[in-house]
Amino acid sequence: MDPSFTAEQDEIRRTLRELLHKRSGPHELRAALDTPAGHDPALWTALADHLGLPGLALPEAYGGVGCTVADLALACEETGRTLAPSPLLATSVLAAPLILALGTEAQRTALLPRIAAGTLTATLAVPAPALTTALALTCGNGGDWAGGGRAGGIQARRVAGTWRLYGEATQVLDGHSAGLLLVAAHAGGYVRSRTLLFLVPAESEGLVRVRQTALDATRPQGHVQLRHVRAELLGSGDERSVPEDLALLGDRAAAVLACEAVGAADRALERTVEYVGQREQFGRVIGSFQAVQHRLADVYVRLQAARSAAYYAAWATGRDERVGALALAQALEALRTAAAEAIQLHGGIGFTWEHEAHLYFKRAAGDELLFGPAHRLRAHAADRARLFSRREVTV
Q1: With a threshold of 0.85, does the pTM exceed it?
Q2: Beta 194-201 vs 284-285: how paired, if at all?
Q3: Spatial CB neighbours of 143, under 8 Å, sequence gap ≥ 6
Q4: Distances from the Cα of 188 to the Cαs of 133, 141, 196, in angstroms?
Q5: Could you read off the pLDDT of 16-59 as tens digits, one per residue?
Q6: Residue 227 binned pLDDT confidence (cut-offs 50, 70, 90)
Q7: Pairwise CA distance, residues 13 & 316, whole Å
Q8: Half-sphere exposure of residue 367, counting CA atoms within 13 Å on the CB side?
Q9: Which of 261, 266, 367, 258 has the alpha carbon at shortest distance from 315?
Q10: Is residue 141 within 8 Å of 135, Cβ to Cβ?
Q11: What is the pLDDT of residues 339-356, one digit of tens each?
Q12: What SS3 class is residue 119?
C-alpha cells in the first residue's frame, strides 16, 4: 500500500474543501436541515456540476468520472468534516453500485448517467431496523430480514405479469426525497424463498413517503409505505445472490463511512483545540492546563489510528479484502470520543442547541444506530475470520 495521495486525490480534496467552506458553513447547514428534503439542492447541484461527485466512482461509459471507491471515500472525508447533508451516501455509496452490479444494460444506461449528473437521487430501502443486517455488517444477511414469507417486512408478488410490492421500510436514508427507491423485498414464499431488489420511481402509485424525525438531523431519513406498488425487478431475474452483493456493498460502504467519520472527528478536535487556545480561566488559557492537553492528546491518538484504518480499508476495497467493518468500528469510536470531549471542553456553550458540538455527537450516535454498534461490528468480523473458533492443534 502506498500511503501517499495522488495529485488527482489531492485536487479533489482541496477543491471539495473550498467549496464546502463557502457553501456549507454552520448557518447554511442549519438552513438546509430545515428544508423539506433536509439538504440544500443548490449545494448538491454544485457538487455535481463542479466536481462530478455523484458519479465519482462510476465508469465513464455511464457518465461517471471513473475513479475508485478509495477516491470517493476521501471525498466523503471532506463532507464529513462539515457534516454536509446531501444525498451522496444514499445515492452514490448505496444505490448506484447496486444498479451497476445487478442492473441490466438497459437499466444501467437509463439510470446511471442521470445519477452521475446529479439529476436523479436514489436510495436503498430495506425493512427497519435491518440496514446493518442487509449489508452484513453486524451479522450474516442470509436470513429472513426482508420478510421471510411472514407478516411484516416487504413482500413481492407477481400479479398479471408484473411485480407488486407490499410492506413498509423505516429509517430509509433520504427515503422521503429520493427520486428512485431500490427496495429489498422477499419473494417466493416458502417454496422459493429469496430476496430480490426492485426499482420503484418516486411517483409510483401506492407509494407513501414521509420524513422521520431522526437523532442525527444531518442524515435525513424517511418512512416508506408500499401499497401494492408496481415495481421493476433490478437485473434479469437470474439466480444471482442478492445477499452476497449486499454484503460486498456493505464492506465498501463501511470503508466510505469510516473515512467520513474520521473527517468529522478531525473537525471536532480542530474546533476544540481552537477553543481551548482562546478560553481563559484563572488568568490562563485552559489549553495550557496539562489535564486538558492530556485529554486532547488521547483524542488525537485515537483519531490518527482510526484514520490509518479507514485509509487502509478504502484502499483494500479494490483488492477484495473486506476490512471495512473493522475500520468503521474504530472510526465511530474516535468520532464519539472527539465529539464528547468537544462538548465537555467547550464548557457551558458546548451544551447549547446553537453550538455545533452536539451535531458531531449525534452523527456518531446516529451512525452507530444505523450501521453498528462498534462492538457488534468487531464481533461479526471476528466470527467471519473464525478468530475465536476451536482448532485442533497437533504436535
Answers
A1: yes
A2: unpaired
A3: 133
A4: 20, 17, 10
A5: 999 999 998 889 999 999 999 999 999 999 999 988 999 999 99
A6: very high
A7: 20
A8: 31
A9: 258
A10: yes
A11: 999 999 998 888 888 899
A12: coil
Q: Which amino acid is at 271?
A: R
Cell of 395: 504436535
Separation between Cα atoms, residue 26 and residue 33, nearest integer Å: 11
Cell of 255: 470503508
Mean pLDDT score across all residues of the chain? 92
pLDDT in tens, 328-340: 999 999 999 999 9
Provide the total of helices (H) and of strands (E) in the chain, helices listed first. 13, 9
Q: Are 313 and 260 in contact (CB under 8 A)?
A: no
Q: Which residues pair with 280 in a beta bridge?
A: 285
- Can you give the pLDDT at residue 238? 64
- Tell me phi and psi for residue 280, to 5 degrees: -105, 145
Q: Give the span between the Cα atoms of 246 and 255, in whole angstroms.
A: 14
Element (H, E) at 85: none
Count of CB atoms within 10 A of residue 292's CB?
A: 20
Alpha-carbon span 251 to 170, nearest angstrom: 22
